[in-house]
Amino acid sequence: MQQMMPSSSEVNVFEQRGYLIGKKIGKGTYATVHLADFVDGAGPKKLRLACKIFDKEKAPKDILRKFFLRELDILTKIKNPHIIQAHSILQRGPRVFIFMKYAPNGDLLNYIKVNGAVVETQAKVWFHQIASGLQYLHSMNIAHRNLKCENILLSGKFNAKITDFGFARFCTNEDGDVVLSQTYCGSTAYAAPEVISGIPYNPKMSDVWSLGVILFIMLNASMPFDDSNMRKLLKDQMNKNWNFRSSVTDTLCSRAKHLIRVLLEPDPILRLSLSKALKHDWVHDNELSKSKMY
Description:
Elements (H helix, E strand, L loop, with lengths): L7 H9 L2 E9 L3 E9 L6 E10 L5 H15 L10 E7 L2 E7 L6 H8 L4 H20 L2 E2 L8 E3 L5 E3 L6 E2 L22 H4 L6 H18 L9 H9 L7 H4 L4 H10 L10 H5 L2 H4 L10
Antiparallel strand pairs: 1-2, 2-3, 3-5, 4-5, 6-9, 7-8
Helix pairs in contact: 4-6, 6-9
């Protein structure tokens, strides 16, 4: 991935604009992510950012057209407190530099690996934040299509923010008609059964399934399904063959269990809608605003 490193000329150009690109902190198939700082000429204060570098010449044309250009279009249209905000998008030659707000407390999956299952009071806060960010996207007719714990970042104040719009797409065409998705994308462990089945699917409802998987993982510190065998995975999903861990099943309240069950409903028509999930008794029990840990 050496070709994704910023060249000395690029470093110089961005420094003149106040952007200081630092070490690499992540990489994908066609992009790398670096730490960065932005220094406003009006003052000495630095703003910590993450910089995603994408080389359009290195990516296949179908990937470029179908995903990356769509991602750029979406990033310029969204602004919400529960979504990682793009600071600026700059291009130099074939390479695009996407500067985004940096989340110093890492992603939700790493948090769970280090700390174990999330206590219910905090899980409520994070679930509400993630679901609210998703509701905003859906109100813009945008489906994320890759919701997973790794794509939920934790800010300096431990607020949850959705990131990575590489698989996001608009759910309607130019005439405003609903368009079903036919692309298998995202992580298998979080993919809804209709996605696994390879049939045209409503991407908003598949997002809701993924949200249910995230909630299950937060409260159980484990995956609801084994994704090592696709055929068995689909069978388990359709048969609702998942269980809470013995260490949490007796302490988890019935309302939390019910919310997970109706989110992990294999029939997308019967699956709980996002608006109803946000109004669920568990989310509002014990006054959400007073249950925040951070």
